[in-house]
UniProtKB/TrEMBL annotation:
Region (Disordered): 1-27
Name of this chain's protein: Mediator complex subunit 6
Lineage summary: Eukaryota, Metazoa, Ecdysozoa, Nematoda, Chromadorea
Organism of provenance: Heterorhabditis bacteriophora (Entomopathogenic nematode worm)
Length: 76
């Protein structure tokens, strides 16, 4: 299985990427990526990012992506 890389906002070089397993489904990849973004937000609380505190990743997985769709619509 090939890895994909997540670059945190503060990354300044390729060696600061976080390697993530590439799952066999797009849904699992989305969920993994959402966890990475949510974890980064929880730790850093960037002032110019929207409030992501209301997103519960496990509930998001159960709701089949409805929260992410709403968040993306709210950002437009």
């Amino acid at each position: 299985m090939k890895d994909f890389q997540y670059f945190p906002r503060t990354a300044r070089s390729a060696n600061q990427a976080k390697n993530m397993d590439t799952p066999h489904s797009a849904e699992q990849m989305r969920d993994n990526l959402l966890r990475m973004v949510n974890n980064e937000y929880s730790y850093n609380r960037y002032p110019d990012w929207p409030n992501l505190a209301h997103i519960n990743v496990d509930r998001f997985v159960q709701n089949n992506g409805q929260q992410l769709k709403k968040l993306l619509c709210d950002l437009k």
